Amino acid sequence: MRIFFIETAVDAPYISVLIRLASGNMAFPHKADARLVTEVVAFLANLSSGSTYCDIGTWTALDFGARDLARRALKVFPADLAVHEQCNRLLKRCFSTRGNLPLDRVRNIGISAHVDSGKTTLTERVLFYTGRIEDIHEIQGSDGVGCKMDHMELEREKGITITSAATYCQWTTKDKDDYHINIIDTPGHVDFTFEVERSLRVLDGAVMVVCAIGCVQSQTVTVDRQMQRYEVPRIIFINKLDRYGSEPYTALKQLKTKLGLCAALTQVPLGAEDKFAGVVDVVRREAHHFEGYKGLSWNTTEVPAKLVEQVEETRKDSNLDDDLAESFLVDENVPADELERAIRRQTIARKFCPVLLGSAYKNKGVQPLLDAVCKYLPSPGDRTYSGYDQSRNAERVEITPDEKKPFLGMAFKSQDLPPNGTLTYMRVYQGSLKKGQSVVDTKTNKRQSLKKLLRLHSSETREVTSAGPGDIVACTGLDVFSGVTCTDGKINWTMSPLHIPAPVVSLSISPASREDSTKMAKALARFKREDPTFIVSTDPGTKETIVSGMGELHLFIYAERIRREYNANVTTGEPRVNFREAINERVPFDYTHKRQSGGRGQYGKVTGYFEPLSYDEVQEILTKYQGEITPMNASKYLTIFQNNIRGNEIPKNFIAYIEKGFRECLEEGPLTGSAVCNLRIVLEGGKHHEVDSSEVAFKAAAQGAFEQAFYGGSPTILQPVMVRAQECGSTVPTDKTGSLMSGITVRKGLVTGSEALTDLDTLVRAKGPSEEHVRLHNRVEGHGEWAMDFHAYEEMPADDQESVKKQYVQRRAREKKLEEHAVIPRNRSIESVGGPDSALIIAGDIGGTNCRLRLLLVSKAADKKDTGSDSESEEPKTKTQLLYAAKYPTASCPSLEEALTRFTSEAPALDEAEMSNVVCVVGLPSDVKNNRVARIANIPHWVDTDGDAIAEKLGLGKIVLLNDFESACWGIPMLDESELICLNSGIPINKARTSAPAITSVLIGPGTGLGEGYLVTARATNHVSAHASEGAWVSFAPQDEEEFELLKFVKKDLGVPRVVVEHLTAGPALPMLTRFYGQKEGMDLADLPKTAPEVAGKYATCPVCTKACDKAMEILGRELAFLCLKFKPQGGIFLIGNVVDSLRDSILAEGSSLRKGLFHSLYHPILEGIVRDTPINIVDANGVSMGMEGAINRATRLALARL
């Protein structure tokens, strides 16, 4: 290090500050040795003496403590403008700006890998060792800080990277060369793969991180494909060598066999697993050790004697090109610098990938990786970039990284980052960019002015005045799309655009209120602008807002961001499929619309016929408009109106209105409410009246003709069939082809062809129902990309048609029953709206997250005879009308009293006179005794809630508190047959020969816990009562040796003295059972799924996850068998809960583990006969809350009994 001397007397005050700081007279966290103080004093003395040259190398050579000391010294300098100017210059220079470094000392790199391979952990170490951050923090760290690059709250909460983040730093290599490095840290989850895509598009090189345990995984394949697409040179870092089960040589082998890379080790490990101590550089023949505070001390020693032979053998394998081969022939002892130059040549040419080793978490191997980035990866000037001159018919032109040439850059990302507003990330390829400069968006030819130029350090920004070739900056004031080329207007050049993969998953999203709708619209507009793979559309058939993206996690993250960042209450669900209706037979129509009301009447008659389009006609239309037809607009193309009237039976000016009347009917068919297609409407004749005929009359005549004749054509339901090209850069890995093809067949699809493109890749083409294609995504474990195109509408199987019809009828009934806009005006009474036998009720469903409340008007049906009974035992026939609904975060409700006070003040239909007659029923996750909350786990501050006291205080007629599963049991009578999926038909209650005085129905739901409850209906009086059960707390009884081992494991894992059924069947059981089986298989438990959805999502693809799910379902099956014997539930058993929903397909399969536990665990024919006689159904309530439905049912009974 260079030592500078004090030259002038004006330096004395500042040196005094430093001396006092170092001597302990000023606050300082650790003592500094004399050498450290001398170096810092000398360095800052040089700056404060007015030197025009700042030695960046000196700064970067200081260790962590010295830099910290210098920064603290700067903060306590006297308020002298000249000194502050020098300090600012120091900060600008030393805080990792490019400064005067030439272009060949700049590196633009991305860090990419499969999820959980250690990308963000590695980036954190890079920033620490380059002095960019003060200390290291971990993902989901215990200090609550988290990694620097995971700046979003959701990223730190979930422990995954969601969005790419940019930073910059400076590194001085072992050879004392300074480099400026721009870094983009990218996500690893397949759902956020577009963040990797657009980052690699603008980077010159990349570090591919590979886990030494998982080796080459699905997203590793995707990242490799993206790097090849954009011709990005890479170096490979095999991480986690400190972990048990790490296999760096297996990882190297898979890099060659699975990815087809020419890769070789440039390092060998010093030790393995928990004995991993460092690496040996085979190029320079030296061992690297990482010691001191968090590995800051990087020391080199001679190669251990036992590794010398391995190092030499590895060195000889690095026979990279002809020049190097010739050197090896002359002398095997090729100099290190010559070998490094050969590695650099071949790496930049993408003919070789140097492989380095280390453990980012243990702070080993990161500094040599930084040296390798500087030595082997290209600078912006080493890459060859080209564009297209649009003024010369898109002639190919070479882009030169020269700041004196016209500006050319690519906007590759847009992001809202308060307080800066919308930032546009820009890579400068040619020319320079200055603050206030105007640029031209080549897509729209719109000229816009830059307001600010910013350098990004994760979520932090620093304003700069200009940027040159190779720089990556953020701009404010631009409104451009991702992937757009920008120029200064002097040239009309464009670059190749981003590859935007097609979305694979869609969800419906809906707001809870009009206010939420406005917030949701703003959020969707922003996210759509930021992420081109996030598609927002409105289904014209179902009127739902549909969001589409790269996976369920991708969409759920956006939904959660809407809730958090915009405070909007939104819900997501499976989108309704765009079914269509058609006829199978020709059917005539002859309809007269006639209406006389005293004055001018209405008259119009139409005759003709409907007929289905032939297959050839449909195919001709699809071919003609290929690329334009989608499931949402297909009806427009596939319905033909034909006018065959020759005379003047109907004046020509009315024909257009007849067609309009027919087409309006076609928008909503009678079977499913879906549009009608594949139809020809032929108008053959009719009549008109000189006075009474009008456009309105003939439009009504057409509508009447449709309603009259459509059912006569044997109507049927059509489903959209998609053509699927399962691609992996136009391919799918060959070893996944069989699994994919079998999945397509099982999911009612048809494989239409396959083509082996390489030894590693196969193209698979198929077609199948659109609602089935998403479930195939797991079949290939995330490998590959989906390409889905609309093919045609085809007739749905008869059984499926009946199910769809029932769902439509049920949905229409519910929509009619829960009409949200039917609000009682303040000046009208309840009786005037609902009749004399009507009442207001409040129903509530309270959970740990949300408090849902509804105000409803209930009344006895008109055909219900008044028996004069004031008992609730009579089964009431009722009508229910939703008046108002609200959902509040439970955490924002200090008590049930405050929640109800807020709700009743907001509800538009309530006034003080009506409050005294309102019955309120609320279900809570608690024990309820004497209408008082005795114990509540999720909302502890609601303990001792007293329903009677709150009713008296608020002036309500009655408040009834129910345990949440008791409330859910009250929802059983509200279930419709179409909401049930049969697991065991048993003997229906109307056919059962029983003399039991009461009929029992049982509800069981594995979710966060295992809830159980039962509903009892007395035969004689029809009196109904519901009860929660503690049956899930029955002790678990092992049935074989493995289950005895499981019993011991659970006791130790949970720290409980007694294992109960709930411990092994509820949601938390799935990851615990996965750990049990993973431990038996000798797997690293840290790499196993941590949540129930993750475990269930890997069913049939991960052996230990499959075993875990099967065991949980087998034990649940035994519990169902026990309930059959305990209750003899002639009314049936009903299964609900998230666990059942996520494993539904495997549960329903013949021979499933649940069926095994249900039918084959009692070992007695009579007992098993009781089980087989019991109806067992899975509830598929389409998002309807059983707890809310039960609260409505209970409140309705109580309210009508009071009339």
Automatic annotation (TrEMBL):
GO terms for cellular component: mitochondrial matrix. PROSITE patterns: G_TR_2 (PS51722). CDD domains: ASKHA_NBD_GLK (cd24008), EF-G (cd01886), EFG_III (cd16262), EFG_mtEFG1_IV (cd01434). Pfam families: EF-G_D2, EFG_III, EFG_IV, Glucokinase, GTP_EFTU. Gene3D superfamilies: 3.30.230.10, 3.30.420.40, 3.30.70.240, 3.40.367.20, Elongation Factor G (Translational Gtpase), domain 3, P-loop containing nucleotide triphosphate hydrolases, Translation factors. Residues 104-381 form the Tr-type G domain. Keywords: Elongation factor, GTP-binding, Kinase, Mitochondrion, Nucleotide-binding, Protein biosynthesis, Transferase. SUPFAM superfamilies: Actin-like ATPase domain, EF-G C-terminal domain-like, P-loop containing nucleoside triphosphate hydrolases, Ribosomal protein S5 domain 2-like, Translation proteins. One of its GO terms (molecular function) is glucokinase activity. SMART domains: EFG_IV. It comes from the Eukaryota. InterPro entries: ATPase_NBD, EF-G-like_DII, EFG_II, EFG_III, EFG_III/V, EFG_IV, Glucokinase, P-loop_NTPase. GO terms for biological process: glycolytic process. This is Elongation factor EF-G.
